[in-house]
Amino acid sequence: MFNLYEPTESHSALRKLAQDLARGVLEPQAKEYDEKETLNESLLRRMGSEYNLFGITIPEQVGGHGLDATASVIVHEEFAAADPAFTLSYLAHEVLFVNNLYYSAQPALHAKYLPPVLDGRALAGMAMSEPGAGTDVLGMTTFAEKKGDRYILNGVKQWITNGNCGSYFIVYARTDKTSRTGISSFVVERDFKGFSVGKKEIKMGMKQSPTCQLIFEDVEVPEENRIGEENGALLHMMRNLEIERLTLAAMSLGIARRAIDEMVRYASRERKAFGKYLSEFGQIQQLIAESYARYRASRALVYETALRVRPDRRESLSAAAAKLSATQMAEFVARSAIQVFGGYGYTREYPVEKLLRDAILLSIGGGTNEAMQKNIMKDLRDSLQ
Ligand SMILES: Cc1cc2nc3c(=O)[nH]c(=O)nc-3n(C[C@H](O)[C@H](O)[C@H](O)COP(=O)(O)OP(=O)(O)OC[C@H]3O[C@@H](n4cnc5c(N)ncnc54)[C@H](O)[C@@H]3O)c2cc1C
Q1: Annotated catalytic residue 244
Q2: Axis-axis angle for helices 316-341, 352-361 (nearest 10)
Q3: Rounded Cα gap, residues 17 and 14, in angstroms
Q4: What is the pTM of this model?
Q5: Cα of 135 to ligand 1 centre, how many Å?
Q6: Rounded to the nearest whole angstrom, what is the distance from the C-alpha of residue 212 to the centroid of ligand 1?
Q7: In 10 A of CB 99, how many CB atoms?
């Protein structure tokens, strides 16, 4: 029988590896790095150098695993059950840079930049958002002006995951001032003159994952670092957003499953009130049962969407629906877990408060839930004959 969650033996093996790493390596460091508000950089590098877990979705010929979106969902789901914040930095490197570079850039850029990011020598990220342009991303003002065989890049990018540890970034910039869609993308190296890292944000959640401003002051970018055609970045930006939304939805699944596990154990084995385990009370049963049913429904939607998301086609409607459903569900489930734990849930003694703090970002990053609602409406309207 077809298994939606592990279609092949490769997927089953990958889930086992990701689960083992999540429990044995990610979980033990999660609380410490949340409190330090610092990325466990050596662990992120080891995802490449030791565990070979970068390049899941890109072909074996270029050093990847040759697997599909379902495989990427599996890793993000399992990792997020242990540490969503570490997983966010993993996602920025693996999905926003590695997957994006392979499917959007020319072979010369693959040859130069994939080897160091696949083996963890270099970390990476993607810079699209700006201080004045988030949801309205086509309102970006960062500009790349062509001068001879280079572009001169000026502007500021905001909220960039891995901003202070990344060596390479895919940077989107306007190359045509007369058109909102005249956008190109470039690989920018940290060491290019004129590039600097600005403020690091202090956040309510996802604390281990660094979020920084990037500043470009007359940065000279060689023409060969332009990805694809000039003014042609919009299509690959939108295509990569689909797998980003899918993997953020997968992270929501991991958070929800962990919150449910914590609730069931606490309510059935640990905490008693009025001489009975909490799980004997109908209202507690309702919180846990609702959480479980909503989690299972979102999980089916996310994995069904993963079958559709492929680099050679657009699947924006399903990706938006999966993200909207799963992120709302994860917030509901994590919030329910705090309620089941009562006062203890509100403290750092138990992991559920961190799950809620981390879950909230998933309704914002990669496009807000309001943006998902608008995209879904637009796609449904456009599908009318
Ligand atoms: C921790 C973190 C990590 C991030 N990592 C990255 C990264 O690595 N790279 C990157 O490029 N970006 C990144 N982002 C940016 C993220 O994608 C944006 O924050 C997001 O797209 C929202 O943009 P904004 O914050 O400017 O909000 P705004 O666009 O200002 O939106 C504010 C509110 O208005 C609503 N709104 C806006 N327009 C409309 C509309 N037309 N209709 C209805 N409601 C609307 C929004 O839904 C939201 O509720 C990150 C953000 C965070 C917080």
Answers
A1: yes
A2: 150
A3: 5
A4: 0.98
A5: 5
A6: 14
A7: 26
Burial of 53 (0-12, 13-18, 19+ CB in 10 A): buried
List of domains in the chain: 9-122 (1.10.540.10), 125-232 (2.40.110.10), 234-382 (1.20.140.10)
Write out the two tokens for 90.
């993993």
Question: Would you mind telling me the total number of residues written for the chain in this entry?
Answer: 385
| Eight-class DSSP state of 276 | E
Mutate to test the pocket of ligand 1, among 94, 129, 211 (most ligand atoms within 8 A of CB): 129
Residue showing tokens 């891995």: 162
Helix 233-265 to helix 352-361 angle, to the nearest 10 degrees? 160
CA of 151 to the centre of ligand 1 (A): 27
Measured from CB, residues less than 6 Å from any atom of ligand 1 are 92, 125-129, 134-135, 159-161, 203, 206, 211, 361, 364-368, 370-371, 374
Residue owning tokens 């044995």: 24
Model confidence over 335-379: pLDDT tens digits? 999 999 999 999 999 999 999 999 999 999 999 999 999 999 999
